[in-house]
Amino acid sequence: MKTLWKSYANTSLIVKITIALILGVTAGLVFGEQTAVLAPLGDLLLRLLTFLIVPLIFLTLIVGINQSRIGDLGRMGGKVFLFYTLSSAFAIVVGLSVASIFQPGSGMQLDGSETFDVPENPGFTSVLLNIVPSNIIAAFSEMNLLGIIFTAFAFGIALSYMRSSAEFSELGNHLMKTVNALNEATLLVLRAILQYVPIGIFAIMAETVGSQGMATLVSLGGMVVVLYIAIAVQIAIYTVAMLLFKVNPLTFFKHARTPMLTAFVTQSSSGTLPLTLEAARGLGIPKSLYGFSLPLGATINMDGAAIRIAVSAIFAANIIGDPLSLSEMFLVVLIGTLATVGTAGIPGAGIVMIATVFVQLGLPMEAVALLTAIDALVGMGATMLNVTGDLAGSKLIDQSEKRRRSANA
Fold first, then answer.
1. What was the pLDDT predicted at 343?
2. Displacement of CA 19 from its chain's centroid (Å)
3. Most buried in the list 83, 253, 272, 406, measured by CB within 10 Å?
4. What is the CA radius of gyration of the chain?
5. Chain-centre distance of CA 63, in angstroms?
6. What is the per-residue pLDDT for 251?
7. What pLDDT does 254 receive?
8. pLDDT at residue number 347
9. Nearest to 374, CA basis, from 137, 179, 232, 213
10. Residue 212 in contact with residue 380, Cβ under 8 Å?
11. What's the pLDDT score for residue 117?
């Protein structure tokens, strides 16, 4: 037994995850809905990863702030927000372009039995206000990522001031040692949790495939295929951008593949965050950057969701036999970009974004009901792209900072 465990522990994580994916798909196809008994194993993985989100974000960001200058943080923050906004808008353009070529939904009709209640959209103002939590404890307990980032910034800057002042330098340095120690302890816990990741992925994949079944995939297969083609195009664009910035794509995807696959299976950018942060460490991105760019990206940067909005809009328009005009496509880009930020961090965000755009364009809500049937299938690819975009953006911004430092040297 000890030899078996040692062999498992020493096997590459990506190999274990790949095997778990294959076994999960096989089990789902063979046993169908009976795989629901595996749900607790998948839930445990999500709980373990979520368990680490708060200490990882809070401690990593404080450490990162104290390893850089405040001016650098402000500049990098501006780059991060600009990248995320433009990336989401560009992803919608990619989705519209690919969907316009393949025209998903053509020939289909709504039978009138579909019903869907439009979920409440909290709006951009609500998301903006959530950045400053009214209660620190509530921000942590409710997993308000924007609130946690704000809190970490506040205390990180305060700690940096303490360390640089004559009056509080000794206290500040002692506190910094404690924060560093807690950060390293958190990383040790993460390494232990990584051993369970393949088991949880097997369970989630088996349950997802078992519950969706082949019938759903066949009936709406065209929509699913078009969405994944658009996702592949967006990843190719990331790759081109890396080449332009002299980032080795093979090295990038070597480190990014574990969070990408985990996000694909769990459909949770936030839940995958511990693995995404670990990948950023492997890529050599400084803590001062990835400590806030990745948690922020998990909340507001949703390239996968943006593509999903675009393809869904073309799909719905084709179903009612009224293809989108160029002006309507422009509205999809504008409203969709705002929606990816305005619905940040809420359950079922993908469907809420789609519903928001459909309301503005007058597209039928019945089509949203139809799309919920393949929510898991498209959500997997969309979430994977969300995480990939977060990491790609962080790496490209890091590379631009390195170029700037070289130019000023």
1. 55
2. 23
3. 272
4. 22
5. 23
6. 95
7. 94
8. 47
9. 213
10. no
11. 53
pTM of the model: 0.84
Residue 1: CB atoms within 10 Å: 5
What pLDDT is recorded for position 94? Answer: 95
Q: Tell me the pLDDT tens digit for each residue of 125-139.
A: 665 676 788 888 888
Amino acid making up residue 235:
I
User: Which residues lie closer than 8 Å to 170 by C-beta, 6 or more apart?
Assistant: none
Could you tell me if 289 and 279 are in contact, meaning their C-beta atoms sit under 8 angstroms apart? Answer: no
**How far apart are alpha carbons 226 and 103 in whole angstroms?**
8
pLDDT of residue 379: 84
Burial of 68 (0-12, 13-18, 19+ CB in 10 A): middle
The answer to whether 98 and 315 have CB atoms below 8 angstroms apart is no
Name residues of the chain where pLDDT drops below 70: 1, 70-71, 107-128, 130, 212-220, 341-350, 373, 408-409
Q: Give the distance, in angstroms, between the CA of residue 199 and the centroid of all CA atoms in the same chain.
A: 21
Structure token digits, residue 230: 């658009």
Q: From CA 247, how far away is CA 5, in angstroms rounded?
A: 37
Distance CA 307, CA 386 (A): 10
Structure tokens at 328: 């309507």
Q: Please give the structure tokens belonging to residue 294.
A: 């990745």
